[in-house]
Amino acid sequence: MRGSRLFSAVPVCAILSFLLQFASAQTSSKPVDAEGHQWWQHAVFYELYPRSFADSNNDGIGDLKGITSKLDYLKDLGVDAIWISPCFPSPQVDFGYDVSDYENIDSMYGSLTDFDTMATEAKKRGIRVILDFVVNHSSDQHKWFADSKSSKTAEHRDWYIWRDGKGPGVPPNNWTSTFGGSAWKFDPTTNQYYYHFFYAEQPDLNWRNSAVKDAMFEVLRWWYRRGVSGFRLDAVDTLFEDPDLRDNPVISPNKNAFGDPIEESKYNTKLPEVHDVLRGLRKVADENNAVLIGETWTKDVAELNRYYGQGNNELQLPMDFLFTTVNKLSPAEFRKQIAAVDSASGWPTFVISNHDIIRSYDRYGDGVHNDDIAKLMAGLYLTLRGTPIMYYGEEIGMKTTPPTRKEEVKDPIGVRGWPKEKGRDGERTPMQWDESANAGFSAATPWLPVPPTYKTHNVADESKDKDSVLEFYKRVLKLRHTNKALLDGSYVPLNENDQNVLSYLRVFKDQAVLVALNMSGAQQKVNFELSKNGFSSSKSLVATGNSSAQGSVVTVEPYGVFIGQLVK
Ligand code: GLC
Questions:
Q1: At what angle do helices 301-308 and 331-342 cross, to 10 degrees?
Q2: Closest residue by CA, ligand 1 atom 9
Q3: CA distances from 271 to 121, 189, 236 (A)
Q4: What are the phi and psi torsion angles at 343 (to 5°)?
Q5: Which pLDDT does position 30 carry in this prediction?
Q6: pLDDT per residue as tens digits for the range 331-387
Q7: In what order do the strands lie in the sheet with 511-518?
């Protein structure tokens, strides 16, 4: 009865298109195990900032040949996919997030041939390449924008968002740029304002124009044809704006670091239309067995769920930045956040550092036990149910090193917001390869100074020290690739009232792994009463210091990690 009513109410073509969509999603997804997991659920991702990773031509800026030369290192570390922050032609106002040609490589990073070589070499090592897709805006130097600003009747005029001011010198509304000042810039050529959520050099594309959509989708296909395995979608929240351009509510009498009113971005972020685009992008991703990672700043899991889409038809990996808002070593707070994302409607994605936020080494470090705490954080997010996205240098304990004087600042938001906002240079410093000049990153002076810690925290030295942060990362990553419970097991929190030790099981069929993370500076002994779960003891798989188990009792060193296989 219900079936026939459904049939009579829904047009046959809609049903057919639904079925076709379903069929295509089914055929394009290639499971990597008997449980139907996809490659991106088992992969460890690694974000690298190309300016800062490895400089092959010694001009002080990293490049693609530099990345290629380090693929063996990444393979050995246990990385399955690299996400490269934008390496396309760009005037570099926002260090690549201002793209002037989506289908090329900036000459400072090399050429398309270098890209192809890098991709081929990566593939040989089983490493996939993910690119950063800057969907919301282009550079003001893009040919589309050059044409757009040339006249009101230009072919590309409506590819960007142009409006009359409210009066002489008064922008169309009160929206402020997240990088400071009004979000509108007056252009005297046509006496109109254009809209930019970020810098004025990053005009917003008009996603309501189907020609823009077509062109951007074609960019994706172009890179898929070149062999990329997916994209990290930049600033997806900001794709659409209220067509009536209503003023945003001002929510505080105070001003932000840039001296601007504090607004709720009600009418220029997270509009429902974003999801139409994401569904479309997902369809193309599925056709290419590719992954979409989202830069999704969500306020809670309900909002995160929207990015997975109904029936998981949008982003496979929307990043859970809420995890990075837990800014102290608090088992209770981590438990809460892990439980929240574990209950999300899609596969969790964990991040603890990236190119926009303070490195985890400093977020959690107490200045004395930072290396132990770095291992503790690795022991946490690399053993949770979900996909981790590492950030270059995290694995050797690189610290955030912000500029100390305004004159040194490279990131424009640091110049504009100094001293309250120092910009993001601190988390983008060159990778520390060895103890030689410039940390082995380049023979020339690097574009950002190398932090003095390169003498103690670098790949070469840490590779020789079995207790280093790097060796710990390698051990945990190796385990995670081979242990079924860590790959696919469910997350079962344990001892939820413990204020010092965060512990949980990862359970897959009759196998279980116990993870105990001591977030305090004192040794802790925890009785897990394993017999209640049908086990007698746990056999150490990876542990720091003297952390160990005897029967059901696990002793964890200060800021220590114990990971053990449960034994019947
Ligand atoms: C994203 C990027 C950030 C960039 C901004 C504008 O937030 O992560 O680095 O500045 O988008 O593209």
A1: 30
A2: 356
A3: 40, 31, 10
A4: -95, 5
A5: 83
A6: 999 999 999 999 999 999 999 999 999 999 999 999 999 999 999 999 999 999 999
A7: 490-494, 501-508, 511-518, 561-567, 537-543
**Mean pLDDT of the 69-90 span:** 98
Dihedral of the alpha carbons of 336, 370, 428, 138, in degrees to the nearest 10:
0
What is the side-by-side order of every strand in the sheet holding 524-527? 524-527, 553-556, 548-550
Lookup result for tokens 């600003």: 149
| C-alpha separations of 244 from 194, 248, 268 in Å | 15, 12, 11
CA-CA distance, 297 to 303, in Å (whole number)? 9
The residues that bridge with 351 in the sheet, in sequence order, are: 389
> Quick check: 10 pLDDT over 80?
no
Give residue-wise pLDDT tens across range 173-194. Answer: 999 999 999 999 999 999 999 9
Is 234 in the active site? yes
Q: From the CA of 355, how far away is ligand 1's center (Å)?
A: 9
pLDDT at 1: 24
- DSSP E strands: which ranges in 229-287? 230-234, 250-255, 261-263
The residue annotated as part of the active site, out of 55, 132, 234, 425, is: 234
| Calpha distance 262→476 (Å, rounded) | 42
Q: Which atom of ligand 1 is nearest to the CA of 136?
A: 12
Give yes or no for residue 196 CB within 6 A of ligand 1: no
How do strand 250-255 and strand 261-263 relate by DSSP bridges? antiparallel
Higher pLDDT pick, 187 / 2: 187
Coil vs helix vs strand at 186: strand
Amino acid present at 100? S
pLDDT score for 408: 97
Question: Do 489 and 512 touch, CB atoms closer than 8 A?
Answer: yes
Provide φ and ψ at 520, rounded to 5°.
Answer: -115, 170
Q: How far apart are CA 194 and CA 198, in angstroms?
A: 12
- The answer to whether the CB of 235 is under 6 A from ligand 1 is yes
Residue of 59, 121, 260, 287 marked catalytic: 287
Q: Is the CB of residue 356 below 6 angstroms from any atom belonging to ligand 1? A: yes
Closest CA to 561 of 550, 549, 545: 545
Distance 497 CA to ligand 1 centre (A): 38
Report which of 265, 357, 375, 272 is spatially closest to residue 319, judged by C-alpha positions. Answer: 357
The reply to whether ligand 1 has any atom less than 6 angstroms from the CB of 355 is yes
| Ligand 1 nearest-atom number relative to CA 98 | 12
- Give the helix ranges, DSSP H, for 104-182: 112-124, 143-150
Q: Active-site residue 333, yes or no?
A: no
List, in sequence order, the alpha helices (H) in 189-346. 210-225, 273-287, 301-308, 331-342
